[in-house]
Each structure stands twice: as C-alpha cells, then as structure tokens.
UniProtKB/TrEMBL annotation:
Domain NAD-dependent epimerase/dehydratase: 14-121
SUPFAM superfamilies per UniProt: NAD(P)-binding Rossmann-fold domains
Keywords assigned: Membrane
Keyword Amino-acid biosynthesis: no
Protein known as: NAD-dependent epimerase/dehydratase family protein
Short name of any one Pfam family annotated for the protein: Epimerase
Subcellular location: Membrane
Domain of life: Bacteria
C-alpha cells in the first residue's frame, strides 16, 4: 500500500510474431496498456523501434528451447502462421504452424506461465483432409494437452488489413470479401473477414478477464472487441 492506495503489480508479456500483421497491432496495444511493464518479443528480425517497455530477442523461432531462460512472463501470445504458397515444403510448414505454437505452450507449462493465447483459424480440424486445417486442428489439440490453466485459441476467419509481404491468393480473397462481406448475414456472418486490430484487442481482453471457452470463433472475437470498444466510449 502506497500513499493510501493499494499497489497493483504490473504484468509482463511475451509475443511471438510481433513483426506480423496481427502481432504488430497486439504489440502496440500492450505497449500502450498501463497494466503491463514489460513486453518481450522473440522474432527473426528487429521490430524497428525502441520503447521503455520493450525487450527484443532476435533469433530462430524454430529453436524456441534455446530461449527457455527468457521465457518468463505472466502471459504469452502466439501470432505465428505461414501459408503453403510461402512455405511449400510440408516439413517446414508443419514446423512453423504446428511446431512453434506447441513448443511455446510446452515451455509455458514448464516455466509455470498460466496464460497462453494463440491464433489458429476457422475450420481448424485435426481430421481434415486439407493440410492447413488439419495442422491447425492438430496444433490446437497439442496446445490444449499442455493444460495451461488459462488457454485461449482464437479461430478467426480471413484476416483483413495490409501486409508487408505479398500473398497473392490471400490478396484476391480479401478483395472478394471487401465486395461481398455485407452479403454474409445470418448463419453466413461467421465467414466475414476480420481486422487484425479486432483480434489483438480481443486477445488482450481475454488475457485480463474470465472467459469460459478455450476455442473462440471469429464472430465471438468480434463480439468481445465490440464490447471492449463500447466500454471505452
């Protein structure tokens, strides 16, 4: 207790994928959040700016075990993902989309980190015949098997926003969704594209509030963000 007020311990967080589209929005949100005093990022490239809260570790995410001693925080956010077009080799593709999130979850379990949030995808299914959906589903099951007390797996639909890298198939899909998003109503509304800022906002809310479900679908992510936005007004 200080000056008649109870002192609130500030938190720390780790972000994997902070240089990506959603990870970038998440990083900025956490840096601006007074509840956090340190944000650690582990990535292959530098973020490109400095901040008093920011701690960077540059290295190979495929070798997360080598960062186990740095993997100490209240929360871990995993925003890692690739595409078959960008990573055509199946083995490397699996090492990224499956291997990195699962390794991160295992280290969280080992180090006693009690909150883990990871971005998966709509349609994730460990029994799917589509490799993308199957790997996401297998990743989800492996992460849940780590039994981290507060685990949330976000399953967004197509993520909107502008990427630094070019993903032609994704770009075409985004243009299509811009034209036809408004037609997706009722049962089809869940297929509407979602902005990365919405995902980032929902992730931070989930980390700081009680929410029963582990797997959270795209429309639920939007509902959480809209409640958050309305509360801030």
């Amino acid at each position: 207790m200080e000056n008649g007020h109870f002192k609130v311990d500030k938190k720390s967080a780790i972000i994997l994928g902070a240089t990506g589209l959603t990870g970038g929005f998440l990083l900025q949100r956490l840096l601006d959040d007074d509840r956090y005093e340190k944000i650690k990022i582990i990535s292959r490239t530098e973020i490109g700016f400095s901040h008093p809260k920011l701690e960077e570790h540059i290295g190979d995410l495929l070798k997360l075990e080598s960062y186990k001693s740095h993997f100490l925080a209240d929360e871990v956010y995993c925003c890692i993902g690739t595409t078959k077009a960008k990573t055509p080799d199946n083995s490397k593709y699996k090492s990224i989309d499956f291997g990195i999130p699962v390794s991160a979850a295992k280290i969280c379990r080992f180090n006693g980190i009690k909150t883990f949030l990871v971005i998966s995808a709509m349609g994730a299914n460990a029994h799917s015949g589509v490799i993308y959906n199957r790997l996401k589903g297998e990743m989800e099951e492996a992460v849940l098997n780590c039994k981290i007390p507060k685990t949330h797996i976000l399953q967004p639909s197509l993520i909107g926003g502008k990427r630094e890298e070019k993903r032609m198939g994704e770009w075409i899909a985004k243009q299509f969704m811009k034209l036809f998003n408004f037609l997706l109503v009722g049962p089809l509304e869940k297929f509407r594209s979602i902005h990365p800022e919405v995902i980032a906002g929902a992730m931070v809310w989930l980390a700081n509030n009680n929410y029963e479900k582990a797997r959270i679908q795209s429309y639920e992510i939007k509902n959480i963000y809209h409640k958050l936005s309305n509360k801030a007004r």
